[in-house]
Specification:
296 residues; 8 helices
Length: 296
Amino acid sequence: MFNRVKLSVKLISGFVAVAAIAAVIGTVGFVSLRSAKGHVVDLGAQRLPAIQNLLTISENLEKIKVAQRTLLNPDIAAADRARQYENVAKARETYGQALAAFEALSHSPEEQQLWAQFRQSLDEWRKENNTFFDLCRQVEQTDVFNPAALGVSIEKFVCDHYVLKDKVAALLQRQHAFEGGDDPTVCNFGKWVAQFKTENHEIDAVIKGMLDGHRQFHEMVKQTKEFVKAGNTQEANAKYEQMQGLLLATFRDFDKIRAEISKASTLYQQATSQGFGGCANKQRDVQNALDKLIAT
């Protein structure tokens, strides 16, 4: 029957069919384009800025972690320590701006719930961090950043001078001669004190108060050796007795320095425990919450 239809009718029918198909395709394409445009607008205006703000927050929280680890290093200079507090302040300012920018965007109910959990964890972590930074500042007030090293040095200085005293005793009793011991500037304590500086008034006062006694001690070593060389045993023994008493009196005040070392050591241990305990635990909570937000 279709074969009997005129060619013109066939052509018109074909054109109508093609037009109808084109209209359907165009309609579908238009609807898809509008939908895609909506997704692109949402991606550019909401999703990408949200991700960027979350990454900015993550980056600056990492800077705070780095500053904390650096502050626990007992060997860094005072200027480097001060720089860590500046880094923390800048990081907090930057992530604070990112927090505000993220909250200004629209979010799904799930994102809002995750955000509330994140903000709570972040506030708790900040409190733990503030406790840590306060302990670090207390350590800095003692001006004893490496209490273990200072303690070892103090004990070595005391030991050195008792060893020297015993050498003098051996000289008197068995004529065991020895070199040196008569110059206060070349012993370990003398070299150390020449370059030692501290803002700790207690330690500074003790060190300054010891200098004259320390000088006299080495002078007595020299005098005792000279008396022995001259064969003046009585004067040599008398000088040795004076030397022993002076040694006890001079280094007795090291106990005051030991007290400052103990104080600094306790604070440093507290800061370390806080950094690897309360701070680290809350930081993990923050990072977990942040990772969930980024993955949403």
